[in-house]
Amino acid sequence: MPIGTLQPLSQKKNSLSSIRTKYNELVKECIKFKYLFLFLLPAIVWYVVFYYIPMYGVTIAFKDYSITKGILGSPWVGFEHFERMFDSSDFSRVLRNTLIISALKLTFVYTSGIFLALALNEIFHEKFKKIVQSLTYLPHFLSWVIIGSIMVELLSPSSGLVNQIIKAFGGNPIYFLAEEKWFVPILILSDVWQSCGWGSIIYLAAIAGIDTQLYEAATMDGAGRLQKIVHITLPSIANVIIIMMIFNIGNIMNAGFDQIFNLYNPRVYEVSDILDTYVYRVGLVQMNYSFSTAVGLFKNVIGLILVLLANRLANRFGQTGLW
């Protein structure tokens, strides 16, 4: 037999042997840490039941779904709903709003956690630091129903504290939640208030792991606080920042349904209506299930593509990505 035909066979045998070895190692690891995997089992079951099994329902995006006929009995229509989606002026509006609001949140809400962590790290009075941390973490545990009610009361044109102050200085009351130019800034500010404290926790943990000798050496060289932050703290937590950035880019098509749903109204639909609220109205209110599923599927596919691109860019520029 020619040598050229023997080499591929030997390569296949080596490949199979390598796969078999890795499989055996995986089985040994699973047996070794069986109790840890047992603790992980409820989470795996939860994801399988509520995330993976329902994915079969995505097929109604390619069907003319009828409740009476069910998923299997509904006729196939191919990409008809996707064509209708791209031809719809409402879809272009909600897509634009989703991208704008998500980009603003990525710029201000995501970075607010980093700035708060850097600021808290510079506080040396432990008691005061704990008080600040508790006050900034607290809003995270409030639902958007509660926060939305607080914002409505604070910004009410008739009895809200903010408008009372404006009127005390001789100004006219402002309808913050009913005017397009004010709604998005209020949206971003309220999200910063709700999220920045909780978002700073992981950065504080990363900062705590930095070698203190680096700061001591910088102090001996005459470096100030700002120089230490720029040249030691930020480079040391760069990998954490990049990983969290990838997670946030993956959610760029989710502009915050709970928040917007509890704050918006028809007067500000032009700037506040996003993909999730649009899917809710079309799918659950108007009961157009196939079309709303097509919109939701489009949103998730774009989110997956953004995660893959962000991870690839992170690896290309020498940072540690998700994989």
Automatic annotation (TrEMBL):
<keyword id="KW-0813">Transport</keyword>
<feature type="transmembrane region" description="Helical">
    <location>
        <begin position="182"/>
        <end position="208"/>
    </location>
</feature>
<keyword id="KW-1003">Cell membrane</keyword>
<dbReference type="InterPro" id="IPR050809">
    <property type="entry name" value="UgpAE/MalFG_permease"/>
</dbReference>
<keyword id="KW-1133">Transmembrane helix</keyword>
<feature type="transmembrane region" description="Helical">
    <location>
        <begin position="229"/>
        <end position="249"/>
    </location>
</feature>
<dbReference type="InterPro" id="IPR035906">
    <property type="entry name" value="MetI-like_sf"/>
</dbReference>
<feature type="transmembrane region" description="Helical">
    <location>
        <begin position="35"/>
        <end position="53"/>
    </location>
</feature>
<comment type="similarity">
    <text>Belongs to the binding-protein-dependent transport system permease family.</text>
</comment>
<keyword id="KW-0812">Transmembrane</keyword>
<feature type="transmembrane region" description="Helical">
    <location>
        <begin position="289"/>
        <end position="310"/>
    </location>
</feature>
<dbReference type="Pfam" id="PF00528">
    <property type="entry name" value="BPD_transp_1"/>
</dbReference>
<feature type="domain" description="ABC transmembrane type-1">
    <location>
        <begin position="95"/>
        <end position="310"/>
    </location>
</feature>
<dbReference type="InterPro" id="IPR000515">
    <property type="entry name" value="MetI-like"/>
</dbReference>
<protein>
    <submittedName>
        <fullName>Sugar ABC transporter permease</fullName>
    </submittedName>
</protein>
<feature type="transmembrane region" description="Helical">
    <location>
        <begin position="141"/>
        <end position="162"/>
    </location>
</feature>
<keyword id="KW-0472">Membrane</keyword>
<feature type="transmembrane region" description="Helical">
    <location>
        <begin position="99"/>
        <end position="120"/>
    </location>
</feature>
